[in-house]
Amino acid sequence: MLVLGIETTCDETAAAVVERQADGSGRILSNIVRSQIAEHARFGGVVPEIAARAHVDVLDRLVASAMKEAGVGYAELSAVAAAAGPGLIGGVIVGLTTAKAIAMVHDTPLIAVNHLEAHALTPRLTCALAFPYCLFLASGGHTQIVAVTGVGQYVRLGTTVDDAIGEAFDKVAKMLALPYPGGPEVERAAAGGDPARFALPRPMLGRADANFSLSGLKTAVRNEVSRLMPLEAQDVRDLCASFQAAVLESTADRLSVGVRLFRERFGAPRALVAAGGVAANQAIRSALQDVAAKAETTLIIPPPALCTDNGAMIAWAGAERLALGLTDTMDAPPRARWLLDANASAPAGYANTRAGF
Ligand code: KG4
Ligand code: ZN
After folding, report:
1. Does residue 172 form part of some domain?
2. Which ligand sits closest to the CA of 7?
3. Cα distance between residue 68 and residue 80, in whole Å
4. Is residue 353's pLDDT more than 90?
5. Residue of 139, 144, 170, 176 with the most ligand 1 atoms within 8 Å of its CB, for mutation
């Protein structure tokens, strides 16, 4: 099975060709990602309209390159998959419409993939992981703990009630005049800082549910910044270290509750899987390692290029769905919001917040 995958939900334009064998194993034949970071950097965050236009500018050539690098002709494709959401709607429309055009012209099945499902299924491509497993997805747009029990079978165990973790890193970086994207910058600065200098809150610590909250912590950082202005270089390092320490403690607590909830409902997970850009953070990785060890399970973090947004994960999710006969029609809609767990509702008291419920 050969599947072309297209990703355009945020600020990466990506196309890839993946092969799935009958035994369920996978192989990446090409995986090309073009980041738009340079276009957005001076605004300190992703600008949706700029993102959509940048996807339009490069996607057709990127798809052609991915096909060429894979050495595959359109007639050989078993399907074309695109991330149909959730994400910035302009970008999603670009990717999905391109996939529909390819599917129509080459008379190939279309698969409209949920971007979160693609993150969730990636460890089955990289290390043939069997179900069920517990996914911790932490990126600029999403923070979720999900029980993955089968293709198309996801139960959300926890989510953020406000900001995503990566988003909080980016906003803290912006307050401290560090460049975008802020996560790596904050991590670097934190290495030279004192994590105990500022007594920042540990959001949601000790709660019985597995939800996250980042906005109070972010406000606490903002208050310290206003109090200290003008900031010395060491203030920036200490604020980064104190912020990161608070995120770590809160994340470890929320995840250990998440894994406990998993165990109660689905038995022992085969692994704890981390995905999303935040999983690149070394301090967070070692916190996750501790959570996994305490929960007597293995931590799996796919290689960085497959943890962050890419086309191979979309192609792979498409292949997994195709293997089950799950294809879509030409009226598949682009979706700004798309719950992975159709039964999940907003956490009590947070019905109107904007997080990716
Ligand atoms: O998964 P990703 O590449 O893109 C999406 O958001 O979809 O994640 C990017 C996010 C950004 O918010 C970035 O600041 C954060 O991941 N990030 C990090 C680190 N590297 C990237 N956050 C904390 N520490 C890092 N080292
Ligand atoms: Zn993503």
Report:
1. yes
2. 2
3. 15
4. no
5. 139
Check residue 325 and give left, alpha or beta (phi > 0: left; psi -120 to 50: alpha). Answer: left
Domain with 285, as residue range(s), is 133-300
Identity (one letter) of the amino acid at 265?
R
Q: Per the confidence metrics, is the pTM higher than 0.90?
A: yes
Do 241 and 258 belong to one domain? yes
Q: Is the CB–ligand 1 distance for residue 170 below 6 Å?
A: yes
**Residue 276 carries which DSSP code?**
S
Report the candidate in 86, 85, 93 with the shortest Cα–Cα distance to residue 55: 93
Per-residue pLDDT, averaged over 322-329, amounts to 98
Shared domain for 71 and 28, answered yes or no, is yes
Tell me the per-residue pLDDT of 223-278, one tens digit each, with 9 for 90 and over. Answer: 999 999 999 999 999 999 999 999 999 999 999 999 999 999 999 999 999 998 89
Cα angle 121, 354, 283 (rounded to 5 degrees) comes to 55
Mutate to test the pocket of ligand 1, among 55, 92, 160, 278 (most ligand atoms within 8 A of CB): 278
Per the structure, how many domains does the chain have? 2
Instruction: Tell me, in angstroms, the distance from the centre of ligand 2 to residue 306's CA.
Output: 10
Lowest mean pLDDT among 35-49, 109-123, 184-198: 35-49
> Is the CB of residue 91 below 6 angstroms from any atom belonging to ligand 1?
no
CATH (domain of 156): 3.30.420.40
Quick one: which atom of ligand 1 is closest to the CA of 282? 26
Atom from ligand 1 closest to the CA of residue 275: 1
- Residues 145 and 339 sit within 8 Å (Cβ to Cβ): no
- Residue 352 maps to a domain: no
Distance CA 166, CA 175 (A): 14
